[in-house]
Amino acid sequence: MMAQVAGISASAVRRIWKAHGLQPNSWRQFKLSNDPRFVDKQRDVVGLYVDPPAHAIMLSVDGKSQIEVAVTV
């Protein structure tokens, strides 16, 4: 589908993915947090992306594939 939209061959898409170390087909499952405050925390993080505070710098750190931490300074 990406090749059709971009107007290039499927093999060109695969070469581009490989050149950049992308593996979109290696995804197997999604782990949802069992943290009882997950929804509240998720809203806080999404809110920072959607409406960041004035004069803020937002850093997003992903140390593990299941964990994302957002820090606002």
Can you put this structure into words, describing what you see?
Helix content is 38%, strand content 18%. The chain has helices at 2-6, 10-19, 38-50; strands at 58-64, 67-72. The chain is elongated and about 45 Å long.
Summarize the structure.
With 73 residues, this protein is of the alpha+beta class. Helix content is 38%, strand content 18%. The chain contains 3 helices and 2 strands, in the order αααββ.
| Structural class determined from secondary elements | alpha+beta
| Distinct helical segment count | 3
User: What is the makeup of the main sheet?
Assistant: 2 strands, antiparallel
Q: What global shape is seen?
A: elongated
**Number of E-type strands:** 2
Alpha-carbon distance between the two ends: 40 Å
**Overall radius of gyration:** 17 Å
User: What is the string of helix and strand elements?
Assistant: HHHEE
Low-confidence stretches: none
- In percent, how much strand structure appears in the residues? 15-25%
Give me the side-by-side strand order of the main sheet.
1-2
Helical content stands at 25-40%
Kindly state the mean pLDDT as a whole number?
78
Write the layout of secondary structure elements.
Layout: H1 2-6, H2 10-19, H3 38-50, E1 58-64, E2 67-72
Antiparallel strand pairs: 1-2
Kindly list the characteristics that best describe this protein:
alpha+beta, 18% strand
